[in-house]
Amino acid sequence: MSRTDLPSQTCTIARAVAQVGDEWTLLILREMFLGTRRFDDFLRLTGMSSHLLAQRLKKLEAEGVIRREPYSERPPRYEYRLTEKGRDLWAVIIALKQWGDRWLSAEDTPVQIVHKTCGQVTKPQLTCSDCGEPIEAHDAEARLSQPFELERQAAGRAP
Amino acid sequence: MSRTDLPSQTCTIARAVAQVGDEWTLLILREMFLGTRRFDDFLRLTGMSSHLLAQRLKKLEAEGVIRREPYSERPPRYEYRLTEKGRDLWAVIIALKQWGDRWLSAEDTPVQIVHKTCGQVTKPQLTCSDCGEPIEAHDAEARLSQPFELERQAAGRAP
DNA sequence: GTTAGTCAATTCAAAAAGAGAAGTGACTTC
DNA sequence: GAAGTCACTTCTCTTTTTGAATTGACTAAC
Asked: What is the pTM assigned to this prediction?
């Protein structure tokens, strides 16, 4: 199986990975959340090649994660903005950031998150939607749906 | 700049992306959190090539995300387990899952998360560590450290 | 005591993706 | 009218990925 088959999987993690789970896409999203909107700023700030950037922006637009908007007619100029679907990826980027801050940083974190509502610097954490307590890997148990369970048992075997 | 330069960046998101931000690594992590431990189960359940799997497992081991442990001496057999650093990536995988469930799923979610402490099916959400309220992109403001800000201004220009 | 099977890989050739430099077109500013 | 900006596209070269086959150290079945 190749990466191009990921979108057709049942697993929603695999599908999410197919849409945004590569190095450059994640960096583009980081820049989006830092307020970057323009092609050459993405180029400059991510260091990726223009070829790749153009390709990824097209893919993200086709998926509905970002939209391309003219901000000048003459000369024709475009900028890129997150859609609601795109903005919803914030949790993914923040989760990566928290992990990076904890495990990969020598000094202080390069980016702090301020919660506008309460005004404080915050370290967003995952909490249970039911009881509100913070939740980590060992507090949780995964329960597979029956179709998904069957699909997994069948995987990799001759039919 | 190539992907191989990502680990040397100041940004902890870029560093995190360099360690775990690719398609197959994210799928391996999904399997880890579902309890998969053995080489051929990863092969079967992710559909990736054995070459890639061996390579990624080595990289993750070198980074300290997983560890390789013998579970049988004769014949020599190994299994892979998450380290604490690896288990801490749970938030990333869950964030991807929630996004996938919301935006990419036709039917019910294939995987439910049960909070062992309270016994309920939960949809983990990011909350502010200070006030405890749920937090999303528009509630937050990024504040860059000065060194990082300067690095960004300098990026892509001749020195 | 062969023969088949399991598991954890490694090897190899072909195909796909990425990197880096250069070029393009529609303008604006000096 | 020359130079610069922005949003790309094109080109070649290199690296990575794919997919199939193979290996080696065993065990279990006949």
From this structure: 0.93
| pLDDT digit string, tens, across residues A53-92 | 999 999 999 999 999 999 887 788 899 999 999 999 999 9
A102 touches strand D (CB under 7 A): no
Read off φ and ψ for residue B152, nearest 5 degrees. Answer: -70, -40
Range of lowest pLDDT (A13-22, B99-108, B125-134): B99-108
Asked if B143 and A111 touch (Cβ cutoff 8 Å), the reply is yes
Q: Which residue of A has its CA nearest to B42?
A: A156
> Among residues A128, A64, A29, which one has the least CA distance to residue B103?
A64
pLDDT band at A125 (very low <50, low <70, confident <90, very high): very high
Q: What is the CA A110 to C1' C27 distance in angstroms?
A: 38
Measure CA to C1' and name the residue nearest C28.
Answer: A75
Structure confidence by residue, pLDDT tens digits, B50-59: 999 999 999 9
Q: Which residue from A11, A22, A103 is facing B23, i.e. has the nearest CB?
A: A22
Q: What is the DSSP string of A13-40?
A: HHHHHHHH-SHHHHHHHHHHHTT--SHH
